[in-house]
Amino acid sequence: MVLTQRPNPRRPTLQDVARRSGVSKSTVSRVINDEPKVRAEVADRVREVISELGYVPNQAARQLVTHRTHAIAVVVTEPDNRLFLDPFFDCLLRGIRRELAQHGAQAVLLFLDEADDYPRVADYLGGGHVDGAIVFSLRPGDGLHEMIDRIGLPAVFGGRPLLRDGDRAHRHAHVDGDNRGGARQAVQHLVSLGRTRIATVTGPYDQETSAADRLAGYRDVLPDAPPDLTERADYTRQAGADAMAALLGRRPDLDAAFVASDLMASGALQTLRAHGRRVPEDVAVVGFDDLTGITESTDPPLTTIHQDVDGMGRLMARLLFDAERIKAPATVVVPTRLVLRGSA
Predict the structure, then answer these.
(1) Where are the alpha helices (DSSP H) in the chain?
(2) How far is 129 from 153, CA to CA, in rounded Å?
(3) Mind listing the pLDDT tens digit for each residue in 254-279?
(4) Is 301 exposed, middle or buried (0-12, 13-18, 19+ CB in 10 A)?
(5) Which distant-in-sequence residues (6+ apart) come within 8 Å of 9 by Cβ?
(6) What is the rounded average pLDDT for all residues in the chain?
(7) Cα gap 122→77, rounded to integer Å
(8) Three-state secondary structure call for residue 322
């Protein structure tokens, strides 16, 4: 049997529903948008007619009435190639998407990689396309807080931004892990193992405070550690490998390392193996994040600091739907804990 359709059937309109129901168009609109002040028997009749006619409300018109798009911008100041190669971001985005789905909302991913991207993203955010924004991977002086302030868009930020001299405090909610406390746990564990020449591979300092806080946690435990035991890198596997090679070149006697991300730590382990160092016998290693796709696949499995990355993503999204928290914003710090595996 072949199904046929009427050619170009006319879709029923709001006026058709109003005429059939014997009410005004404004009353039909109030019923569609579940507004009060419509008598129950009238609302029932309108819904019955809507069903009879097969009327489908125009979504664009509904947005004009409700001012809701059910879309949330996720704004990332990272190159797109790094975003999709780093499992940290994948886990964070997964948490955001899951929570938004619980609220019937959809994530719209926006990249801010170059200076020319800012006016484009500002126009999009201010154009009524989204109901709010989740922003992470901030850089000092990038103007994102000020941009969103001008637009008047509800927003939650991942990580605490680095404030330069003269910067004002920001009035948005922030979600951050306990980076300093987690780093302290990592280094204290290495000290408890009797390690005395503990190096660190730290992250870049030009983003949110995570890298600076993890370095501060290392220095809380080892305030007199010599500068040659610290190597700065970005959060990639190759950078971790290169940083460990540089440390071994300066300090071949190092006997432990706190590496500020699991991805960098996996690269550091490769370098240690290539230099004939046994882990943990010669060099003990602790990472940060507890991304199990990395920590359980390294050789040996990686001891690390756990933070609930998926949960942080969900919390950022949840806060957008919590009007009181948005009105009285604060930094929410998610706790961390040490997870012991074979590397330390």
Answers:
(1) 14-21, 25-32, 40-53, 59-66, 80-85, 87-102, 117-125, 144-151, 179-192, 210-221, 237-250, 262-274, 292-295, 309-320, 323-327
(2) 11
(3) 999 999 999 999 999 999 999 999 99
(4) middle
(5) none
(6) 84
(7) 13
(8) coil
